[in-house]
Amino acid sequence: MNKTFSRTVWDFMGIPFRLVLFDQAWLPKLGWTTLEDERLTEVFPHLRGVVLDIGAGPNTLIRRYGKGIGIDVYDWGGGVLVVEDTSKLPFVDSEFDTVTFIACLNHIPYRQAVLNEVRRVLKPDGRLIITMINPILGDIGHAVWWYSEDKHRGGMKEGEVGGLWKHEIVRMCENAGFRLKLHRRFVYAMNNLYLFEVEDRYNGGPSHKE
């Protein structure tokens, strides 16, 4: 989604409403860009091949991308595959080219186990994409986002956190066998995109380059 100049200005003027106060479902009616669209705009250029989207919510990424599968522990609609435990994925080794966590890794209590499992289902030249806010912004946001998904399912569960710091994400991913290729900020530097590749020592050869 390429924003026009007028849309960019209108989005900036609407920051308090579209980032905090208003339900995301209202924003298109007012001409504002949703946070989901902001995230997907950042993620889409980095998708490759068959995608597994973990914590897929309403499965927007897969429905738009068209090649892959979305999974979640809750059924938010959109054709997701509901699984009981995302650290025990019902897929064979090296099945996917890309795995994504869009604004959801902080909501998975057993994060390291899930990332280890992601390494198993990714191809040797696969990539891992994560979007995440930091804990300070996350804690503030989850306190005021009356429309957020965690509110619809009864609040934050044990082990969930508002957000994750860069060093936490990098450490967990390195422990699972990945190395950071790209980190960039977006949405007024309040959100983060992380792109990881399988570490060379795991795939026995040069890493995939864009």
Overview of this protein structure:
It is a single chain. The protein contains nine helices and seven strands, in the order H-H-H-E-H-E-E-E-H-E-H-H-H-E-E-H. It has a seven-stranded mixed sheet with strand order 3-2-1-4-5-7-6, sandwiched between helices. It is globular, with a radius of gyration of 17 Å. About 35% of the residues lie in helices and about 20% in strands.
Feature tags:
alpha/beta, Rossmann fold, seven-stranded mixed β-sheet, 9 helices, 7 strands, 22% strand
What is the residue-averaged pLDDT? Answer: 91
Total beta strands: 7
CATH topology: Rossmann fold
State the CATH superfamily name: Vaccinia Virus protein VP39
The number of domains: 1
Q: How many H/I helices? A: 9
Present the secondary structure layout.
Elements lengths: L4 H9 L1 H7 L13 H9 L7 E4 L5 H6 L2 E5 L8 E2 L13 E7 L8 H11 E11 L2 H10 L4 H4 L13 H10 L2 E9 L4 E8 L1 H4 L7
Parallel strand pairs: 1-2, 1-4, 2-3, 4-5
Antiparallel strand pairs: 5-7, 6-7
Quick recap:
The chain is α/β, with parallel strands linked by helices and 210 residues long. It has helices at 5-13, 15-21, 35-43, 60-65, 111-121, 135-144, 149-152, 166-175, 200-203, and strands at residues 51-54, 68-72, 81-82, 96-102, 122-132, 178-186, 191-198.
